[in-house]
Amino acid sequence: MKFILYAIYGCIIGVANIIPGVSGGTMAVILNIYDKLIDSVINIKKHLKESLLFLIPVAVGGGLGIFGFAKLLKYLLEYFPMPTYFFFIGLILGTAPMIFGKVLQTKDGKKKFNGYSIIPFIIFFGIMIALSFFNTENASTTQIQLDLINWIYLFFGSALAAMCMIIPGVSGSMILMILGLYSTVLGAIADILKNFSGSIMILIPAGLGIILGLLGGAKLIDICLKKFPQMTFAAILGLMLGSLLQIYNNSGFQFNIQGIVAVFTLILGFAVSFILGNDKIKEKFLKKKEK
Questions:
Q1: Residue 86 domain boundaries
Q2: Cα distance between the two ends of the chain
Q3: Model pLDDT for residues 166-225, shown as the tens digit of each residue
Q4: pTM of the predicted model as reported, rounded to 2 decimal places
Q5: Cα separation of 266 and 262, whole Å?
Q6: Within 13 Å of residue 254, how many CA atoms lie on the same side as its CB?
Q7: Residues 3-20 as b or e (16 or more Cβ within 10 Å = b)
Q8: Dihedral sign (CA 38, 39, 43, 47)
Q9: Strands, E, within the chain: which ranges?
Q10: How many domains, the chain?
Q11: Dist CA 78 CA 72 (whole Å)
Q12: Which are the contacts of 17, defined by CB distance < 8 A and separation ≥ 6?
């Protein structure tokens, strides 16, 4: 029964991870398995059997969630890009208050602004704004030229995304979108049955990067969040807000029927992520679950 339960949890986290702006880490917190997930990854060598008994069903469920949802998401990006991208924008804006709250929170749990936090925020915000002028990904871009440089880029980009998806409030898919890799990876997942050889050549470096990011990144992220929590979340906030310009550019927004729908999907996305990122709402949810 535990295997099935953990697989269901993994499926929910997997679906969350494939949607840019939705955090798999946040879903793990809501499901009350975040601490166990991080501990299992960090201490996999020390507690191999216990860790694998938990991680394997979560990974199986996560894979089912990702592969099951990828085709629908690819369809939405291809045929309804404006509402879909604006939904992503809403998700990011709805998550921002929660991340900003983390920027203000000191190690002892008090609220206090750290002036040094402005530095990583400005740096990462500036990087994302600059990238938006050089890297414009669109929904029809599902393949990249398969050469050694792009394989390496896929590997390290996926590793970075995996590191970030560990953090509650941060979306690994959003990192892939910022790096211009999201449609490539999504297309490879969605078309794996139709174009197995082409998809697998993309998914191998991406998958290896994700494994590296999860195993190596969990410890690094854990250290950063424990030693420099405010500056770490400030960097994350800068990255998230700086990415909005690129996502808006990708949407190709026009004031037409789809554009009007896009405004409503933005509001919907904001509401979804704001609720998921609200600590008070999560506490009420977990209390009801315990009862």
A1: 2-290
A2: 20
A3: 776 677 887 887 777 888 888 888 888 888 888 888 899 999 999 888 887 777 777 887
A4: 0.68
A5: 6
A6: 6
A7: eeebbbbbbbbbbbbbbb
A8: negative
A9: none
A10: 1
A11: 10
A12: 24, 62, 65, 66, 165, 171, 172, 173
